[in-house]
């Protein structure tokens, strides 16, 4: 389904006077501090986050899964769902495919369908952490790191196939996340596992088109519970460094040990030009994969503070990072959950754009942590919602995406079209 | 299948001379320190740990599941598997049923089958964290704490039914573990959730036979990722305290925040007579549910040090705790995994029996932490494997359970009988 | 020193037009959502947080301490410093004494001095975690839990003396924080330590005036690194419950294991009427004691959401909690640090007052976590700084306390008066 | 003081028959498994751990310090204390100096004194985390990373001076641990801090003699509570990599976030030839610095399993690591504490030497985690204390070092010589 543009407009019109007032007031306040609201609104309009194809259905835990209704059963439905998100938020202009869950049957038609929703295909994702029904070798004991060369070869070939699909759709990067690791002390030879993974990645890297990038994701644990081959950014960076210029680290917010200073990792990787991509979610305990900003919005702001710093640094050779939401929607309607995530991401981005970087740098050079904190918090405490609303308004999205989604009964319509019991592939 | 007793004996006979030598040497060493090896062997023979009916198959994570072969497809097969464990280890003399996964069709036959393996039925477990196909109300948003009275009623009735099955089989206790909680700030009214849970538990408590006990398990997170209704021992204890004399807390090793001093919780609960049961497993990150003793054997020893202290305290009115292994077997053969867990548990128990408690108490009263540590470590560093082997030998188990399991090709035989692709109920 | 009122007024006058505009805009916005800004401003004016007497100097770590200048060397100076904080913020209307660091020599004069600054004396704090030069017995191995009855007696008597001083000054409560515990497995008999602590606390409780309250603080570790006698809220509550109606638990934000859901603890304790006090600070790793709100402002808001819920619950019999800042100022000017903490606390309080509790409760009863989150975040994302500024303005404080502090060169003046090298008692 | 050799021999003679019996029994058991006890005893005799000069006195926390008696007040006394440890344990044959706490006045005499105790000087340590009385610039806001070039220069010069002292004494390496970092978000520009640190380290590196090594230590937090410049092994390795061939990472067991897989870090660094040194201690919560092996002896074994693997790998170009105990002795007699640490280290080493590496590698290649665990645990569960005792006996140390220390009243004698109230420099 697609939402009737006029209906969005009608809802916007009702809310317009209040929005105008708030936006104007905020513009005045910011203007007095030297910030140009219009320029910020432009940046917010440009900022697009990819939605992965597996994130449109209800997720689950090892204890079970509680389906919702109207879930997308096909790739076409999934593209339509991202299209809905984009129509409302004007921030979800890309889709990130997960192979083999979402293999396009007709590449050209798939591209055209996506384009009709204003969507492009961002990084593609391989999957060697599950066995597929017709698979020759099992990944129970690893894939790219497996002791058996035949298993590694199968996993490498799968990645090469993923690249092929991505290339046909216009993607320009491959994200490799490995579950490879061990659940028991002694199970794995750490050094051999690293070397085998490196060799496998080298084959994949060699098989990428010349304008592609390879993103190496890291994660400290789960689904393995003692070790993972790529346990942290240091290991990911070591691999990316050995692979070549077009290999980068990818940071997933949920893939860190308790209390990790993630913003410093972001700064470090950008400093050496090696931050390739970023996966958004939030968590309290582990890789909980809940809605972005649901728990630690200030941490998200601090991370964006470094991202903006890196992106705006003229001396940096870090490429523009690939953004993606990587969350699991166990309890909420996935589309509402994603709208909340998109909002949280852009709030943090907008707040980071309001940091007075000159003053901040001066406070740092003067060893004045109290003032540095005042500067950061002045930006963070600003209610930037009117900026986001304005960006959406200008792009013909909804002033209030979730409000519109609910008032327009989108989920009900999806259930009518698709039924109560569809299960998304990959869930 | 059952293992031919003669085969176990043959294997034991081969290993007997070396075992005798090691046991005699250890007996001498311990004797000089005032410990009676025979008395310790007797205690080890008496110590039995329940195996839950769901633990005989291959487990999984939210990312997938890699089956093994020869898994038990029926309750009868599961009882047979526990029977094998008990035959080899002489330590797994009880089975803990999980309803609705393992509802006995013919109670009398089930009891007799178990008895023929030397097994009794320990605590029964209810399940209100998943929806069953024919279920009227969903537990997506909780069970005993649910906002809707009808859902709570359904969950209470399920527990009453579980008690009924358990009573028929000879069980004397019910373990309630709740997934109830919330994944997002704001989702739950903490106080209402507690009160509703309390009321539901009161109905269940009232429905237990007069000689039954209720065990209230706690867990800080997962499958909910922001809060759980019974987040810690304090909450569990508050509930047990309000419920009555036959309600107790149950400690699961994996259900704690990082770095929790679990042994102190054990001591505290036993001090007030409220430790009802104990679930064994091990973990590095969260509720990883790996083999007992695979990661923190010294912590397990410290916990047993408190358990032994509580069990041997004549002034304590704490009941003898219900022991159960609660682990997930994702990578190893489940039976080998359980044999390793049983071994680790009894090693820790044996070491705890070797703590010189009089000397320890004296060191404590003298504020001598170095000496207290020496006393604990002297017990822990002792190689107590000959004590366990001797206990098994006297009970006609295997001197080397895993060795026997492998040399007798038990898994191969199970696969022959049951096939490669059976999936256990509940997995 | 005291700041000339006129100077504060002058600074306020300059900022007044902008403040008026922002406040009026916010009042309009809130008014449309059904909130009465004036009523909220009144609540903010009433809300006062105690500053402890030891928090006015530069703190340190075990690795060292880097002094600042102009620190208060006497109790009189400390009272003056809190007076300055209160003059600027109108939120620091109480002082919390720490004995033996700040024993008043002339009680009447001390009371009058405090009153002249608009300050009252809140909870008094005992110290049995350090040895004083003239002390008979050492607390190296504990105080209220010590194996030696004479040491326990000394510690009890110290607490009784603290009560005596507090009583003379008008305090109505005693906070007991114990470092008692152990750094090595085996060192302590957990049960004896608990029982001895309980008996000691009973003696202290018996020695309190009839209108006094006893606050039992908990902490999982540090300065002991294996166990503490009162490791968590469950233990604290067990003690408070056994002590009597006027004994309560006290929550310090930094005294929890990683990832603890503190807001649920707050809700639980208020539910049973047993939350006595609250110590504010912030932390990323352990009991880091940094500026309130410097790291996890959303968590602080969630906690205030529960505090407000409990305080506004007519059915609750929980007393109004005692608020105190308990932070260490290692790098910042302590007065600036405290002003930032006061601001962060009141921001969270104001945001919590903006939660639409009726709508929230409805979303909860409807199992609508997305909406519940929207409601909480709508409050949190509101820029409530104008409400705080208005409250200060009406109370004749500074619109911008830190700005005023810097522009009026307060620290420079303090250094002139007191010198560069004074060291506060207790540091 | 020095212990009379004859007294140690007398004590050994009394315990000899029991020791012989246990050692012979163990040799038989190990021999049947293919291990040569004599060869292992030789390796244990060779293994020496440095004791830092600051570890001989009573440590403290930010809450206070409880002195013991007979502490060493001079460098000579400290050397004598390490001499005592070495005499008893024959494992503490090196001392690691900390400048400026322990500047030798007469280098030649100091060298001779150490040699007379059988001690050499291992890695020297600089200190730029505290201000010394006569210091021009403060390290309050960092040292090698400081915003002010003059401060960095002072810190570099201090390191060059430390090298000079070390060189004179025969040391061959410098350990740099930095407290540099920030306690508040915003305080530090992560990238500038890294670059400045790198430049400072380059100057130090350039100032080292050609046969010296530089060890770059990392730590995630404390005494800074938001960020540290060298937060993890990845950052340390990046620095060491940029510095040159003679720069290495140094791992301190307590300097990791909760649940870090340290053994994998060790394996990774040795794989790339970049593990320079290792600091031993143990901890439950943070950098608790308690006795080695007091809490997680199995983790220590797993780490030694990797260390042995790396040391015995003929293809590895990793240098032999520098070992040091880095613990704080707050409650125990420091010498007893160090003897316990030495014992725990060598137990783990001995157990790691008993791992059947051929069988382990085979189990790994066969994806047999159960067998791999059996192999590791078979080594770990062996009571290797007789091997350590035999190594000491052959080297003329004490069969039972702590027993001897207590029976010979060493502490009492030290108190008689030095008094009750000496405070070690640096504490």
Automatic annotation (TrEMBL), chains A, B, C, D:
Pfam families: AP_endonuc_2 (PF01261). InterPro entries: L-rhamnose_isomerase (IPR050337), Xyl_isomerase-like_sf (IPR036237), Xyl_isomerase-like_TIM-brl (IPR013022). Keywords: Isomerase, Manganese, Metal-binding. GO terms for molecular function: isomerase activity; metal ion binding. Residues 103-289 form the Xylose isomerase-like TIM barrel domain. The keyword Cell division does not apply. It comes from the Bacteria. PANTHER family: L-RHAMNOSE ISOMERASE. This is Sugar isomerase. It comes from Echinicola soli.
